[in-house]
Amino acid sequence: MASLLALGYLLEATHFGASLNQAWIDTEIRGKGLSGELLFIGVGALAAALAMPRQIISFLGGYAFGFLYGALLTLVAVTLGCALTFLYARWIGRHFIATRWGARIKRIDDFLGRNPFAMALLIRLLPLGNNVVTNLTAGVTSVRALPFILGSMVGYIPQTLIFSLVGSGVNVDPTLRIGVAVVLFLTSGAIGVWLYRKFRHGHTLGAEVDAELDPEAAPEKLLKPD
């Protein structure tokens, strides 16, 4: 926790997040060839690992490289960011958390552990949650790293495409482009909710999550004592 606070202070002091914008893309990334692409991936991975919303990174990727290529480079960046955060939590915090709050993470462990790839994919499609918190939480469980990271990568694809499309400025009427993006965003979220209801097989992320995603089934669970 102290190291995360220190990183947060460092980011605030250096204005790291605020400097990642279209002006930075214009001066440091566009027209730089391979070096610009690698710089975007590296900085994007670090930004994703340190809690910058991946939707912003996707938008900048689309702005810098166009729709599809921007989405591809962004996907690489945010997946690396996911891996960095996950491994950070595993190497630094797993033993500490497990010895003190093992019971509190058991629910997440049970949910992810049975099929890490499918469950990570499902979580990424849900229209809720926080990317970095999910990565940190998974890192302190016993879930296998590779299936979780690969499942996350596949789950990142819909929103990466959506926000890369918005940022790309492709030759489509802006209103239509944003409208298509909104429809795709809502569709991917609806698919995530449907998958959660259908495939969790008795596992849960908690009564609060169930109340948001499955109102018909949630009241009964919410009334049960802890």
- Counting DSSP H or I runs of 4 or more residues, the number of helices is 12
Q: Major β-sheet, in short? A: none
Strand content: under 5%
Count of domain modules: 1
- The percentage helix is over 70%
Mean pLDDT: 78
Number of strands: 0
Distance between the termini: 27 Å
Identify low-pLDDT runs. Answer: 217-226
Instruction: Label the structural class.
Output: mainly alpha
- List the helices and strands in order: HHHHHHHHHHHH
Q: What does this protein look like?
A:
The structure is a single chain. This protein is mainly alpha-helical and 226 residues long. The chain has one domain. The protein has 12 helices and no strands. The model is unreliable at 217-226 (pLDDT under 50).
What is this entry, summarized?
The two termini are 27 Å apart.
How are the SSEs ordered, and which strands pair?
Elements: H1 2-14, H2 16-19, H3 22-29, H4 34-49, H5 54-65, H6 67-113, H7 116-125, H8 131-139, H9 145-168, H10 174-199, H11 207-213, H12 218-222
